[in-house]
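PROTOCOL LOG
Step 1. Enter all chains and additional molecules of the complex.
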Amino acid sequence: MSFSLENIIECLLLVSDEPLSSNQILKILDNAKYNKKKIEDAIDKLNRQYESKAIFINKVASGYRFQAKSGLETYISKLKDKSSNKFSKAFLETIAIIAYKQPVTRGDIENIRGIAVNSNIIRTLLELEWVKVVGHRDSPGKPELFATTTKFLDYFNKNKLSELPEISEVESL
Amino acid sequence: MSFSLENIIECLLLVSDEPLSSNQILKILDNAKYNKKKIEDAIDKLNRQYESKAIFINKVASGYRFQAKSGLETYISKLKDKSSNKFSKAFLETIAIIAYKQPVTRGDIENIRGIAVNSNIIRTLLELEWVKVVGHRDSPGKPELFATTTKFLDYFNKNKLSELPEISEVESL
Amino acid sequence: MNNITAVYNGKKISHIPEDLFIPPEYLRIILEEFDGPLDLLLYLIKKQDIDITDLPIFPITEQYMRYISIMENMHFELAADYLVMASTLAEIKSKLLLPVESDEDDEEDPRANLIKRLLEYQKYKNASERLEEIPRNYRDFYVVTNAIDYQKSIIIETPDIKIEQLKHAFMDVLKRAEIFSTHNIQSETLSVRERMTIILSLVKDNENIEFERLFNIKEGRLGVIVSFLAILELVKESLIDIIQNKSLSKIYISVKK
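Step 2. Run joint prediction.
Step 3. Record the structure below.
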C-alpha cells in the first residue's frame, strides 16, 4: 500500500513526540520530488479535512503539532488526571530527587534511581508547575536541567527549599 | 462547536497516553445516551474513514489505541530513538518466566535461572506496569506472587496471554 | 548461551579456544555474557554436542571448575550462586563414585535433578528468545500516544503528598543507590541547591550577569557564602561560565554555551 504525502505527514506528526518542522519532514522523506511548499500545502489540505473533527494541526515555534480544538476540555481533564501516576512511588521519588538534588537532568534521576524515568511523571510535574526547566547541561544532547518552583514550595507551605526536612546521615542508618 | 461521537473518541484516543477501553471511554463521556455498542460502532466507522490513511485504531489487551500501518517504518524509524526497547538477556528471561509460569515468586524465578534476581529488573517491570503483585504465596515469608498485566500484552500487540508464542518442554539441547 | 561472540583485535571469536592463551580482557567479555551457573553449564554441555540425559559429569565438572578458577584468578566478582553450583557438582560426582548396591538400583540417578533444572532453564531461555522475536512497539510497529497537545485550561488535580513522604522517598532512594557514603547531604546543601536554581534562572534570563549582582549584602555573611558555594558548584557541574576579560575588570557569569 502506498500513501499520499498528506497521509505520510499525518502519520509522522502523530507518531512523533516533538513538533516537526517542514525541514525535518523533508529530511525524513529524503526525496527530491518534495519541497517546503508541498509540505505546507499538504498540511493545509489536512486541516481542511479536519474541519469537522476535534483535532487540527497547529504551527508552533518548533514546527507542526497536532492539537485538540477547544470544546472537549472536561473530557480531556478526566483522561489526563487518571493517567498521571501521581500517587506512585516513582512519582514521589522523582520529585524528591529533583527537590533535594536540583538542578538535575533526567539522566541524573535515572542514575540515582537505577531505572528509567517515566515521561508521564516529568510531564505531570511540569504541568503541575512543581518543576521547571532552568537550563541545559553542557554535555552531549544538552539535556534539560530540572528544578523545583515556588509553587512546589507553596504546596508544602514553605518559603525556602532549605525549610524542607533535613536529610541526615544518622537517620539513614 | 459540537463534535460527533466519532470525533470525540478520535480526539480522546490521540490525547491519551494509554489504550482506552470502551468502558473507560463511557466513563469519561458520562452520558446515558452512549453505550458499549455505540462506542464500538464509532470505532469501526473511524477505521473505515482511515482506509486510505497511514494510521488505524487497533484493539489490544487494555483497549483501543492508534497505530501506524505498516509501510512507513523507514520514515518513522528516523524519528524514534530505539535504545529504550533493547532488553538484556536477564530481563527477557525474567519476564518470560513470569509470563509463562505466572503467578511466580522471586524465589521461583531464581530457582529456574539458578542465580539471584537483580532487584532493578523487578522494579523496572513493576514500574513499567508489565508485572503486578497478585497475591502472596502461603509459605514462610509470604513471598509476593507476580503476574503479567494487560500493559505487557499491549507492548507486544496481543489481546490475550494465549496469543504469546507457544513453548514446549525441552527434552534435549 | 548458544552463541557467544566477542570481537578481539578485529577478529570475531565465538568460542574459547581450548588451550590457547586467552587474553584477560577477551575472557572478561565472554564471562560477562554468562547469566549464572546454569547458563555456563548449558554452554559447556552444548559445546560438547552430547546428549544431556547422559550428562558426563566428570569432564563437565572439571571444565566448570576451570572457568570458576579463571574467574577467581581475574578477581572477577563471582556471584555466590556459582560456588553453590560448584558444590552441587562435587556432590553429584562423589555420589557417582560410590559403589552402587545391587538391591538399590531404583534409587534416583544423582544427576537427575540437575538435568531437570537444566532442561527447565533451557525451556524459559527458548521462551525469552521467542519473546525477543515477536513484534514489539517502537521496533516492529509504532503506537501513537500522547499525540496531541491540549489547551492549558486542562486542570490536573494536585496530588496529596505530605512533606515527610518526600523526605522518606529521598532517603529510600539514597539507601538503594548506596551513594550515601560519598554524598553527605547536610542541611546547608539545600540552601546551596536552592541558590543554584535561582542563579541559573537569573543567568538564563539575562545573557550575562555581573558577578556582584548574585550576592545580596543584606543576607549577611552566611548568605554570601551560600551564593559563592552555589556559583562554585554550578561551575563544577559545568552549567555556567565565569568570564573576566582582563585582570581586575568586571567578572560576568553566563550560561555555558
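Step 4. Note key features.
Chain A has a mean pLDDT of 86.
Chain A is about 50% helix and 15% strand.
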